[in-house]
Amino acid sequence: MKFRKVSAVVFAVTAALSMAACSGSSSGTSSGGSDGSSFEFWSFTGIDAKGSAAEYKAKRPDIQIKLTEVGNAQETAQALTTALAGGKVPDLVLIQGDDLPKFVQQPQNFVDLRTMGADKIKGDYLDWVISQPTAKDGSIIGIPTDVGGMAIAYRADLFKKAGLPTDREEVSKLWPTWDAFIETGKKYTAATGKAFVDNAGGSVYSQVVNQGQEKYYDPAGNLVYERSPQVKAAFDLALKAVAAGITAKQSTFTEGWSAAMKKGDFAVIAAPVWMLGSIRDNAPDTKGEWDIATIPGGSGNWGGSFLAIPKGAKNPKAAWDYIAATQSPQGQLDHFSKARSLPATPSVYKDPKLTSAKDEFFSGAPIGTIYTDSLLGLKPFLIGPDSTTIGTEFTNAITNVEQGKGDPAKAWDAAVTNIKNAIGS
């Protein structure tokens, strides 16, 4: 049922994109043919692709960029799959990390970026990040744009009312572990009568499962989601949070979530670095009331995206020039200064522009160090072609329990059954 719903959205989006391509509409720019002075760029929403394109055009006014924000990350990946099958592709596409593996398995559908110069710059990126777009034959189909260092955003004003510490270092000490995080939540809810955290799926499960050394696949690429200790621990902790009664039951990015955030109906959100922009956009009047503390467990990564050039692109050189300029260490550092997108280029992690970066919306929190510190000692896991589907089904099962629609004692088995039905294994 869910797959059909997503497919319908993708069909509509892809049809709209095809019509736009036929008509030449471009939201203020034109595709300009295959003359090397323009390129068509597909991105997903919520990551300020317009800002990145505008920054580039300011430096390269001779270049025309036809930008289309297709939909969310999964919808964009689905639209790309359809476009690859139909042969009408953009020159450049942004692919979210969890959606990347299925494309890496089909490197013939993309330009091998080594032919454009990727072999000379691959050392600029975290080795575990640049390995993700590298196919078995050695070809590189994408260049990293960012990583998703992890932290916890909390309402310091609401913590004060609950009698909890408000200083970010003291708050971090409240939850060295996820069990301690849940216990803190119970204290907050007992003192205020309000929920502590927005939801268990996004702010507990999705965080814990991204902190281990193995997730849904083992290093050899075998599916292990059903027997992974890390996955089961994450799932159980999320259900523990639900049972503790500390969640607001508001699924991330929904209208209810946004409204509850504005009203202060919960005090905590798990905040990978890319989440900060969503908090600002959804609750602008709460500026200065938020702060940022360390993630329980200390480290982890959730997120990150890649720019790829599909085979058949009309303007691959213009697309590569954009990648080379915007995703260099300096380009990523400059973009962090404007959009808070955490660089995947470790050479800039000690740069004063990053280490001194503070965010006044979040009470002057030193986000440059908080988020890069969360990557230290990280031992990355393999992301496989069905990681997104698997994660979605586990999260759905948790949400069903949270919403009173599922039995916690049967939730794990239900999720595993749904996963097997969805991916066939």
UniProtKB/TrEMBL annotation:
Superkingdom of the organism of origin: Bacteria
Keywords: Signal
Gene3D superfamilies according to UniProt: Periplasmic binding protein-like II (3.40.190.10)
Classification via Pfam families: SBP_bac_8
Signal peptide extent: 1-20
Keyword Cell membrane attributed: no
KW Signal (keyword) present: yes
Protein's name in the database: Extracellular solute-binding protein
